């Protein structure tokens, strides 16, 4: 299907992650059109970003310059141009501190939003600050913790509209490496986690952090000796890793409301493990939060420029 | 250099792991010659094992059949032929329970030694039983724990010449995947661990098991924000993983003598972390233990056949 030609968007919203580039043609908060490509940050050199962007948005451009508001790994040190990290505690977004890459096409006014940093323990995030801003635009009075599972899971403490602090866990990436590339690939591979096995293992690991290092190889041995299935192995591995994450993140969820925002299947695992551990946890569809955050940023820029 | 042609070994010793094949021409316990190739189990289909063996030993063979005593992953389910697992507690070796693959060349009498298994927690080992037998042939009165670091680290409780039980940790494989393939590759890669950073992190993780999941991503952030070097990152990652292994393995080392047998550099890390944690730990060169174990097996076979 060919997209209808759209002319004259007020501004363009861009979510530019490691593997995907998504763009929206916007009039205020209204979406006129949207497109995406696989030209993520990870596949581009600095010279490649402007052409990759134009490939998707050129026919939206008229004669006037258009603001382009971008978030995500596009602003990493290995991206288009490094955007700063704003130190927490702070509001999730300050679009006036966006970084402006030099562009050859005069119709593009690109703003790359800053990420967030934390000194102790050292931590950084990029892209999630825009999701958080989108969440707070819709839930301005929220007090509690946001849990954003994915390749890296971000736990973010929110109070009075500010990000107080946050903690990143590499659980998703560790799971992918162990299930597909370690000796456990012979047991697990791409199998989907069995929920009973997941909940049993996450309860064990959430109360005994030794379980995660000690319980990995027994998954292979149990497949060889006891006929553990791939789905049970996937459930136990995921449970051991997420359970030990919950144990280490306990101060972030034990006495406050938690909202889990991420892909539905992975979020359901976190929700199940958190609820089983006694947390006040709620799952939320986060599909549109990035756009809501980019819209809040565009609105702030318009008010001040 | 061309090896001198050796004829008439009494028997042939074979250490056949996942990545390497090593063979020795033996007269009793005397080594006449030795060779190796990269035809490990991982690169062979079942039909490939006999040719890979003959490639190294054919010119050692005369007219008479020669016993070939083999240990290691050659006996895995995905190896030449599956050799059994003997359930612990038991002696490390019982060569009479070796598995005999069918061979086309009548001069080869191949014996693949059994591995060891444990029901609870489920665990298996293959190859290390022969190193353990070699160690016990030289230290028959040893009581304590053997720690065999490597891709997978095996902790083996020894009493009265028997293997009472054992526990496998995937620490080496987890380190390799995280340092070379996760986001931490941008910080660590192939850097060698800084010892001070290693000892600091292993002490933290040995006393607080939450450190290992919580401390991974901060290594990347500390490199971005604080100039953490690759060597410091390698030391901290190794320390977090080995420290959490020590915490989980505490019952295996806290009240007994530990002998660490493995590659010198990795063994030195385990020795440093164990000593710092108060263990009675000793490092030992294990280079010849497999051959000592295979020799003990050959001697037992000769006595009984």
Annotate the secondary structure layout.
The structure is a homodimer of 305-residue chains.
Chain A: E1 11-16, E2 21-27, E3 30-37, H1 49-57, E4 66-71, E5 85-87, E6 108-112, E7 115-118, E8 123-125, H2 128-138, E9 144-148, E10 153-159, E11 162-169, H3 171-181, H4 195-207, H5 211-215, H6 217-226, H7 230-248, H8 250-253, E12 257-261, H9 264-276, E13 280-284, H10 289-304
Parallel strand pairs in A: 1-4, 4-6, 5-7, 9-12, 12-13
Antiparallel strand pairs in A: 1-2, 2-3, 7-8, 9-10, 10-11
Q: Can you tell me about this structure?
A:
The structure is a homodimer of 305-residue chains. With 305 residues, chain A is an alpha/beta fold. The first copy, chain A, has helices at 49-57, 128-138, 171-181, 195-207, 211-215, 217-226, 230-248, 250-253, 264-276, 289-304, and strands at 11-16, 21-27, 30-37, 66-71, 85-87, 108-112, 115-118, 123-125, 144-148, 153-159, 162-169, 257-261, 280-284. Chain A has two domains: 11-126, 2-Layer Sandwich (Nucleotidyltransferase, domain 5); 169-284, 2-keto-3-deoxy-galactonokinase, C-terminal domain (Nucleotidyltransferase, domain 5). Chain A is 36% helix and 24% strand. In chain A, the strands form three sheets. In chain A, strands 3-2-1-4-6 form a five-stranded mixed beta sheet, with helices on both faces. Chain A has a five-stranded mixed beta sheet with strand order 11-10-9-12-13, with helices on one face. In chain A, helix 3 runs antiparallel to helix 7 and helix 4 packs across helix 9. The longest helix of chain A is centred in the last third of the chain and has 19 residues, at 230-248. Chains A and B meet through strand 11, helix 3, helix 5, helix 6 and helix 7 of A and strand 11, helix 3, helix 5, helix 6 and helix 7 of B. Chains A, B: This is 2-dehydro-3-deoxygalactonokinase. Chains A, B: It comes from Paracoccus broussonetiae subsp. drimophilus.
């Amino acid at each position: 299907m060919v997209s209808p030609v759209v002319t004259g968007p007020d501004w363009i919203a861009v979510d530019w992650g490691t593997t995907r580039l998504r763009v929206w043609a916007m009039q205020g908060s209204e979406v006129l059109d949207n497109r995406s490509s696989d030209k993520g940050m990870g596949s581009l050199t600095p010279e490649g970003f402007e052409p990759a962007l134009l490939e998707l948005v050129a026919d939206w451009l008229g004669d006037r310059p258009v603001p382009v508001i971008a978030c995500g790994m596009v602003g990493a040190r290995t991206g288009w141009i490094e955007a700063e990290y704003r130190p927490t505690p702070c509001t999730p977004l300050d679009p006036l501190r966006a970084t402006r890459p030099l562009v050859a096409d005069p119709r593009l006014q690109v703003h790359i939003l800053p990420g967030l940093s934390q000194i102790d323990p050292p931590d950084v995030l990029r892209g999630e600050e825009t999701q958080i801003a989108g969440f707070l635009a819709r839930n301005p009075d929220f007090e509690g913790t946001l849990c954003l599972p994915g390749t890296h899971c971000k736990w973010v403490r929110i109070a009075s509209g500010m990000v107080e602090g946050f903690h990143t866990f590499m659980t998703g990436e560790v799971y992918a490496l162990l299930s597909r590339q370690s000796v456990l690939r012979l047991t697990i591979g791409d199998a989907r986690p069995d929920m009973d096995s997941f909940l049993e293992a996450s309860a064990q690991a959430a109360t005994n952090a030794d379980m995660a290092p000690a319980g990995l190889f027994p998954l292979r041995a149990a497949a060889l000796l006891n006929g553990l299935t791939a789905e049970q192995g996937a459930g136990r591995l995921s449970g051991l890793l997420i359970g030990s994450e919950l144990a280490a993140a306990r101060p972030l969820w034990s006495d406050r409301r938690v909202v889990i925002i991420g892909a539905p299947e992975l979020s359901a695992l976190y929700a199940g493990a958190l609820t089983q551990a006694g947390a006040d946890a709620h799952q939320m569809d986060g599909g549109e939060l990035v756009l809501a955050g980019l819209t809040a940023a565009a609105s702030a820029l318009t008010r001040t420029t």
